[in-house]
Design goal:
The complex is a heterodimer of chains A (75) and B (444).
Chain A lengths: L1 E4 L7 E3 L23 H28 L9
Chain B lengths: L4 E3 L2 E3 L8 E5 L2 H12 L2 H7 L4 H14 L4 H25 L3 H42 L4 H16 L4 H14 L1 H9 L4 H9 L10 H14 L2 H13 L7 H31 L7 H12 L1 H34 L13 H19 L5 H26 L3 H8 L3 H26 L9
Antiparallel strand pairs in B: 1-2
Helix pairs in contact in B: 2-7, 2-11, 2-12, 3-10, 3-12, 4-9, 4-10, 4-11, 4-12, 4-16, 5-6, 5-11, 5-14, 5-15, 5-16, 6-15, 7-14, 8-12, 10-18, 11-14, 13-14, 14-15, 16-18
Classes of the chains: A alpha+beta (75), B mainly alpha (444).
Chain lengths: 75, 444
């Protein structure tokens, strides 16, 4: 196994560590702006909002319960 | 042209041009192996770090209560955890950016802030539980936690602060491989292999039938096996390592190996826990279990379990803190790479250091509300996981951004939506159980 420059003219395969390799041009979302609101995206975000509201209500219920305001604690 | 330094069979040639340097090999087989070894790391780390202190506690508890009866659940979770993380790998390689940055850019600042705040909060609370486990294990090992916990925190800071991604990765991969110790302990305690294989393959219900506590333990196992920070961590890790498009299949293999290794280790934790059921041992945490097993398994097993518990917490801490630091750095636009020295990425390293230092300090406060913190982690995970996976799924269907090459196929979507629905339902049941147990008839 030999440590070589990737451009070295050789019959061997040259394997480069990703951190040593030239930087690739990636898919860049910064110029695209927000995602288009298709039906799937809209529906997913709506479901997520509903789920988060439900979770918030549950936590509020727990806080009220712990405070004894529901008057259901035993002992 | 080239001056060569011979080191055994390796010829090192100085970098005389701007072109990348690499290792030359003669066979295709060697090229594939070497490429895989260079890509290997993020997949194993993200999976094995998820076997953190909380996971050790959950799995040994499952073993202690139900023996090896719940092993089959881990086998079911194997493809689920792989499919979710494979999507993360694809997104990370395609964009070279972290998950938090993607949510900000594609879903707007509200969802971006929500995801980031939730991630930072749940990560921080989880860190406190990791340090609580470190304190417990050190205490049982005869080390004063007041000295051991700050020392662990300093070591964890030193681990990332060397300015070399590769150094961090090699160290953490070595720590991951130490978890082979769980397999050795499981073999040592001599649980019948036939029973383990049968309960791993054939779904069975433990004696006593389907009870509420069994259902919630199953949900806890699912929640432990797939955590929200993993999505953010692996995508940032892949981006920091600058994995290339051509590395995708190797990164998938890395993730698959990580998933299999993690599930095997988790199963061994359950088998170790089952030993306490056989010997009629009751315990509150794995450290207590280790001490109680000593008369039956020996001092070596006690020490090994305590050290592995420590290792699990250390792995969890570095991965979770890094997922916070990467996410915050991405969103703030700060330099955020383990390749950068401390003075070039002060914000990124500060987030990591502050998270570790404050979590360690909280554990040392007498009568800190650890139970409340564990409960909060469970609730927040219930909020965070479904939302993080939904964003992941939507991003992987973003054809404008990813093109056909990286976008989900139809079969991907069917599997992923099924996983999302299962997670939604399980997370909701767990959150209801934790927050309002009376609604499910668990309170009293």
């Amino acid at each position: 196994m030999t440590f070589l420059n990737a451009a070295t003219n050789t019959n061997a395969y040259v394997v480069v560590h990703p951190l040593d390799d030239l930087v690739e041009e990636k898919r860049d979302p910064s110029c695209l702006g927000p995602m288009p609101m298709t039906l799937t995206v809209r529906l997913s975000l709506f479901t997520l909002r509903a789920y988060l509201i439900l979770m918030t209500v549950l936590v509020a219920y727990h806080v009220v319960d712990l405070a004894g305001l529901l008057n259901v604690h035993k002992g | 042209m080239h001056r060569s330094n011979f080191k055994g069979s390796v010829i090192q040639i100085p970098d005389e041009t701007a072109l990348p340097r690499g290792w030359a090999v003669r066979s295709l087989w060697a090229r594939n192996l070497l490429t895989f070894l260079m890509v290997f790391g993020p997949g194993l780390i993200v999976m094995e770090a998820d076997n953190d202190a909380g996971a050790v506690s959950t799995y040994v508890q499952a073993g202690a209560q139900y023996g090896t009866h719940l092993l089959w659940i881990l086998l079911v979770l194997l493809p689920m955890t792989y499919f979710v993380q494979e999507m993360v790998v694809r997104l990370g390689i395609a964009t070279g950016q972290g998950h938090a940055a993607m949510i900000y850019q594609r879903f707007g600042s509200w969802w971006g802030r929500f995801s980031l705040f939730d991630l930072l909060l749940i990560n921080f609370l989880t860190l406190v539980t990791e340090f609580a486990a470190i304190a417990l294990a050190l205490d049982k090992l005869g080390v004063n936690p007041r000295a051991g916990v700050p020392l662990s925190a300093v070591a964890l800071m030193f681990l990332v602060g060397t300015g070399s991604y590769r150094r961090w990765e090699r160290t953490v991969v070595a720590l991951c491989l130490l978890d082979i110790g769980w397999i050795a302990i499981a073999v040592f305690i001599r649980t019948p292999a036939g029973e383990i294989i049968r309960n791993s393959i054939v779904p069975s219900v433990p004696e006593g039938g389907v009870t509420a506590s069994l259902v919630f333990l199953v949900i806890a196992i699912v929640g432990t096996t797939i955590a929200p920070w993993q999505l953010f961590f692996q995508q940032s890790c892949v981006a920091d390592k600058r994995l290339r498009f051509s590395d995708l299949n190797w990164a998938r293999l890395d993730t698959l190996i990580g998933a299999i290794f993690t599930i095997v280790v988790a199963g061994c934790m359950m088998v170790v826990g089952s030993a306490s059921k056989i010997h009629g041992i009751a315990f509150l945490d794995p450290a207590q279990m280790a001490v109680a097993l000593r008369p039956f398994a020996g001092v070596g097993v006690q020490g090994a379990i305590l050290l592995l518990m420590l290792n699990a917490a250390v792995l969890g801490t570095t991965a979770i803190s890094l997922s916070s630091a990467w996410a915050y750095g991405e969103v703030r636009g700060w330099p955020h790479s383990l390749e950068l020295p401390l003075h070039d990425a002060p914000g990124f390293y500060s987030v990591y250091f502050v998270c570790v230092a404050v979590a360690a300090a909280i554990v040392l406060i007498p009568r800190a509300p650890l139970q409340l913190i564990i409960l909060s982690v469970q609730v927040l995970a219930g909020v965070m996981l479904p939302s993080a996976i939904i964003f992941l799924q939507l991003l992987l269907n973003d054809r404008v951004l990813l093109g056909d090459e990286f976008t989900n196929q139809n079969w991907n979507n069917w599997i992923n939506w099924t996983i999302i629905i299962v997670f939604f339902v399980l997370s909701l049941i767990l959150a209801v159980q934790v927050v309002a147990p009376k609604l499910l008839g668990q309170g009293g």
